[in-house]
Amino acid sequence: MELEKRHTLIKEWLAVIKDFIIKELNKERIIERKSHWNDLVTDVDILIENYLIKQIEIHFPGELILGEETADTRIAMNQINIEEERLWIIDPLDGTLNFITSQKDYAVLIAYYEKGIGQAGYIMDMNSYDVYHAFHNQGVYKNDQTFQLKNSDAQLYEGFVAFNSKVVYLERYEKIRQIGKKCLGVRGTGSAGLEAVNLLNQYTVAYLSSSLMPWDIGAATILLEEAGLKSSDFEGRDLKLTGSSSVIYAYPSSFNEIHHHLKNEKNEQ
Amino acid sequence: MELEKRHTLIKEWLAVIKDFIIKELNKERIIERKSHWNDLVTDVDILIENYLIKQIEIHFPGELILGEETADTRIAMNQINIEEERLWIIDPLDGTLNFITSQKDYAVLIAYYEKGIGQAGYIMDMNSYDVYHAFHNQGVYKNDQTFQLKNSDAQLYEGFVAFNSKVVYLERYEKIRQIGKKCLGVRGTGSAGLEAVNLLNQYTVAYLSSSLMPWDIGAATILLEEAGLKSSDFEGRDLKLTGSSSVIYAYPSSFNEIHHHLKNEKNEQ
């Protein structure tokens, strides 16, 4: 089975990456600035991404690759219709700033899409080294064992909500922040991949981020939808595989509560 | 030496508590509501607090105890002048909601004050089981080894700032949240004790919380001041050992940046 072949390979790649990262811990890092003063990349991000690209090119020549550090500019420029392609979306280190500061709370993310439909998503949680994966219409697995949610649904008052940094400090997200009042408390790890893991384990009931790129959400969306959670942007639209998007991931009841709250915001304006 | 005797006992107590908590993990919990719907306490909090109170009463009869779950109402009602007393301040589980939801990101906190001056502070980080402690004017220790900060100072742009939930969602903290723009990113664990550990390890450069009780800050303040960090409430006043207080803990330069920002807030109003 074609997807099984990919699964076997991806597990091998993740094992190699895990060993590589563990060996690189506690070493001096080469850190470079990308677009902004706080948009940083390390030599570890780049080495992992190059490794994955090489493996994909060897085993699946001709398939498109959208990686955080080497994004195919033809995709970014919309010169390729990804809805017609076989597409890999990878984030070698999701939570690079966490990796730099604490070496905690980061993840490795790999996703594979066909004609715009997520076929396989992988998150390796680098705190625990647990690998979560999902195939389209085949449920969620943790370390290759069937994974069940604690509860298939949860309301806001039953758990924590996580926000990304910009939701916390930008004035225009005032109404979104007030969702924090309706839940047990507000959290934030700085890694969208780990936020997906926290949702799967029901450590949180919702995650809201003002701006995420395809490599932040490619794997998470497959895993969370396969687990029965809901996803959209702040306006309720489906998440896109290109460009930057706001993101809501939540348990169904919390998702409805959040959109009800956001709709009322518009009515009040 | 009197403080050494306390140190030996407290280490024994923490070892007992650690073993007890580990045995209690993954069991059904008895959870009770305290003041609000999201102010919860478990049987584990109460059993640990009762254990500590009993130990203190056996070894140090007559000394005052201010514990989260059984706070001496004479202290809360200001019928006792704690500035004249030998006072224990304990939080059996700091981060109870985290303990309930994820069994991650919580801590055990013990502090001992004489005449209002912190003599000994202990934080047991229950993610790693590391015990951080400090004696007055004798520096900080991690697992009984001398602990040095990575850098004795840090500016906001060099690290993360952590907020508590209310700072994130209450409108009146708009200006405080904007400090998030000046740093690497915003984080929040939901445990003031762990935020102190994150500061000691320079995973963050500042922590701001809208309202903390003496048992949240009793140990942290001793450890952080002993490490050379700064503390105050949002108005720049010294932290109090009674009642609820806003709290800023930060590296010296970040502390100055934050108070400069908050002062400008007042001028702009």
TrEMBL record, chains A, B:
UniProt cofactor(s): Mg(2+)
Binding site for Mg(2+) 2: 93
Single Gene Ontology MF annotation: inositol monophosphate 1-phosphatase activity
UniProt KW Endoplasmic reticulum keyword: no
InterPro entries: Inositol_monoP_metal-BS (IPR020583), Inositol_monophosphatase-like (IPR000760)
Keyword annotations: Hydrolase, Magnesium, Metal-binding
Protein name: Inositol monophosphatase family protein
Keyword Nucleus appears in the UniProt entry: no
Any single GO BP term: signal transduction
Organismal lineage: Bacteria, Bacillati, Bacillota, Bacilli, Lactobacillales
Entry binding sites for Mg(2+) 1: 68, 91, 94, 216
